[in-house]
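Many introductory courses stop at the sequence. We go one step further.
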Amino acid sequence: MSPDKYKEWIDYADSDLRYAKLGFTDEYPAYHTICFLCQASVEKFLKALCIKFEITLKRTHDLIFISNQLRALLPKILEVQEFIEILNPYSVETRYPGDLDFSFFNNDLAVEAVNSAEKVQYFVNNIIPIG
């Protein structure tokens, strides 16, 4: 894998987070989609770190598993663990009816998801600045 491949993952992560924020501008925001995009963004940020530090991962969407794999080389990951844990359920539960009641998702939850993703984004940008 190209040594700079992690930059592409960060670009995708930034894009997911940008579109999550745009979701609030809709007349009827899809809060479940905002939460999903935040989880997807953080998954890509964490996988960018794995690529940068040459950590091979099994195919997974589990943010906690990914952060645990990073912990040996990057113990500072614990600084954002609570935000990772907030977002972890939104990979699957937001995608299909029946996993979580649609009314479960609301503005407050979506705002929390965006704030959590931004914390991880800031953390990753301080570890491997792009720019």
